[in-house]
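Lecture notes, unit on binding sites. The following record was shown on slide 14. It pairs a sequence with calcium ion.
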Amino acid sequence: MKKSDLIDLSWDEFDELRDPRPAGNDFDAVVDRAISRRGFLGGVLAFGSGAVAMGAGVFGSATSARAQAAGFAFTPIDIATDFDIHVPEGYAWKPLVRWGDALWSEAEGAFSPETGVSVEMSDKVFGENTDGMELFEVDGKQLIAVNSEYVNPKINLPADSEGMPKNADEVVLLKNLQGVTVMEVADTGEGYAVVVDSPYNRRITHETQMTMDGPVAGSDLVKTNADPEGMSPKGTMNNCGSGRTLWGTYLTCEENFNGYFGATGEFTLTEGFERYGIGGEGRYAYEKFDERYDLSKEPMEPNRHGWITEIDPANPDSTPVKHSALGRFKHENAAMTQATDGRVVVYMGDDERGEFIYRYVSNGVWTEGGSTDGLLSDGTLYVAKFNDDMTGEWLALKPETTGMELAELLVHARMAGSKVGATTMDRPEWIAVNPLKSEAYCALTNNSKRGSEGMPVNAANPRETNDYGQIVRWRPEGEDHGAETFAWDLYVMAGNPAVYDNAYGGSDNVTPGNMFNSPDGMAFDTQGMLWIQTDGDDSNEGDFAGQGNNQMLVGNTETGDIARFLTAPNGAEVTGLCWSADKKVAFVGIQHPGGSWPDGDGIPRSSVISVWREDGQAIG
Ligand code: FEO
Ligand code: CA
Ligand code: CA
Ligand code: CA
């Protein structure tokens, strides 16, 4: 494969090429291959609410009255196939910040639609491909911490590079346009804008100095020539989803880190490299210009990535911390809550076909204003087993349960999870914890290989060749997120009821009027409504006919109703959602748009937009 071919792949297609896959799992129950729609709905009935509680076709023809009956404040919108944003009547939107926009005045005007941003200005602007984000109130200011997941080299590098850097400067340019941005935002009276030159503004890139804590810090598995102590990794990469701690810091989640490494010479393709899709050539040729990314020179460097990293947005001089106790995998997001006894609980998904859902539980407890020492470095990592009888359990990953040393089982959490019999899932994306009820939701985006390759069909992942995805939810025993067991069901199975009248038609809360595929981003608002963002097939053809562009929907988790709120420009996924302090504005991430959205000057720009109600009421 030519270099220029490699860079044309999506991250998901790149994974297909590397083909990391779970070990065959004896514990993974094989259920009836002919999926029973009745069986699925039986599961929903176990919870007494959700999909089965409503008749099909509630939003087959959406009306305001029906939407209000379901608790929605808006009239659901139709699909779109154009290169624009659409929101319900009575709502409006505008861009907040675009790839290449200045965070400091010296970079104003730095972006050109023809040449992008210069290397000199590349760490002074908002990065590309916006993803997870959270808003923090600090000293009366509003700060957004937001990820830039990856970069499109074809539009950032000179045309003659064909999407691969030709020198070290071009590598620096790409590194700087990814990572994390902390930016102050303010309502100017004409909508929200970034506060250029705010002392809180900060860029964190693939080169930013970090520290590591927890059991892996100082282990041989993370020692490199540049850091023989194994305590000071540099950079956070492929920052996908987000999380926030109870104490007001940002959690950035390192996902497809594997793609940044390659080898210029001999290296050993270990079991760990294979399971994590590491090897061969990197997507951006970093290894040619920077030894840190060269597996033949620094074989332990990939072990320093794939972690949950904590950033204090209130202190621009703070050093980010990689929390090894939370395990290393392709982190989607991190949903923090508390056990009844005050211990900190973090739910996390590993976005790969057949990988697992994890939970971390601290040993110490958190109280408002109390110490946070050790809360993310001293605890136990668990992995989820979803039984076919709609119960589930958290399996502890410990030396006693895995036969692996503690540092080893955290670095290779996937292998540890296989050893204890975790359930292979259909690509766990975001997890959201209901603020009003003891339950958590995980978007399982899709899995083209379910039913093969060590991923037999199971009750929580019930469809072979699952191109539509589903959302699983669990309720912990005793309403305690620290409990060892839970009950689960499927909140929704996405599908296309206009094409299929079997399980691929989706659950009963999916109708021709609200259908979608590939749920990904999720967040609860303060009212207990579940906002669902999609990252799927937007061809509007074949199995996806009638589903249009990627979208953001709102789910009522009590009734099961789901209504479409926003449609993205064709080509884009919707990812990342947070709200202004007064909840009157929702900030929504639009990643990899097509056409020339939003400026119409020939080049599409990944952007965060503001969305608000024209009557000034809160939107979440
Ligand atoms: Fe970066 Fe799994 O999405
Ligand atoms: Ca995602
Ligand atoms: Ca994506
Ligand atoms: Ca996705």
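Take-home: The first helix runs from residue 3 to 6.
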